Amino acid sequence: MPALRQCDFAFYDIFDFINIALIIGYYILTTVTEVFIYPNTAVKRRMGFIDNSIGSKLLDKPLKGYFSNDSIPYGSYKLGVNCYENCFFSYNIAKAMTLQIAIKNSVFFLFFLGCAYFGFQGSVVATPIIQIFLSTLFLNELIHHLNFCSKLKKILDLFQQLFAHKLKPDDLGTPIFFMLDYETVLAFNKSPLSDKKYQKLNSQLSIEWEELKKRYEIK
Predict the structure, then answer these.
(1) Cα–Cα distance for residue pair 56/38, rounded to 1 Å
(2) What is the DSSP string of 132-154?
(3) How many domains does the chain divide into?
(4) What backbone phi and psi angles, to 5 degrees, belong to 122?
(5) Angle CA(79)–CA(83)–CA(86) in degrees, nearest 5?
(6) d(CA 78, CA 99)
(7) Which domain holds residue 69?
């Protein structure tokens, strides 16, 4: 029996070590992504957006291949068109990511919840509490993503209504307001959109975007 109890304690020690390592690794990865990588990428994206819309030179090199509205003159109208294109792509990519995020977060939610259960079995209080906290974080991430998709859809619908009623070239306030609304939604998104999904959907979404431009006579 004593030998068996020693084996149990050794098992729980190894289990706790792995759990703590996973927790620290997840925290570091999340912090680096949310605090450093994602904001820096977002700043460059916004600078490229402004350059392409009004002809400024915030970036040291012009942004090529990101927008498909080069024939439209610089100004508030092009700013609105570019933001409409951004929102169209962002919404469709985010929507395509939903199932993947739901599966990933559900798996991690159940994993950390299971780890918390075994942690309590080992009479270690701090680790399972942290694991329960982490499991709720994964659930929150899924909820935030669904909310992100919902808000993008509302902005996309507003853009469709705006161009259906023919946005005037001298209308400066409406495109800027929609752009700020769109950027606010992106700012509260906890994770960047998937590059793999973008590469996979880019061709089809580009075709659909050109069809939208023809439908609403965007030129």
Answers:
(1) 23
(2) HHHHHHHHHHHHHHHHHHHHHHH
(3) 1
(4) -85, 5
(5) 145
(6) 33
(7) 2-215
Tokens of 74: 């610089």
What is the 8-class DSSP label of residue 165? T
Cα–Cα distances (Å) from 94 to 67, 98, 109, 197, in that order, read 18, 6, 21, 9
Rounded Cα–Cα distance for residues 115 and 201 (Å)? 37
| Residue-level pLDDT, tens digit, the chain, 219 residues | 444 444 554 555 666 667 667 767 777 777 777 777 777 788 888 999 999 999 999 998 887 778 889 889 999 999 999 999 999 999 999 999 999 988 988 887 777 667 666 655 554 555 555 655 665 666 778 888 999 999 999 999 999 999 999 888 888 899 999 999 999 999 888 777 888 999 999 999 999 999 999 999 998
Closest-CA residue to 202 (of 88, 98, 80, 102): 88
**Contact residues for 4 (Cβ-Cβ < 8 A; gap 6+):** none
Residue 157 CB contacts under 8 Å (≥ 6 apart), including other chains: none
Residue 26's contacts (CB-CB under 8 Å, 6 or more residues apart) are 134
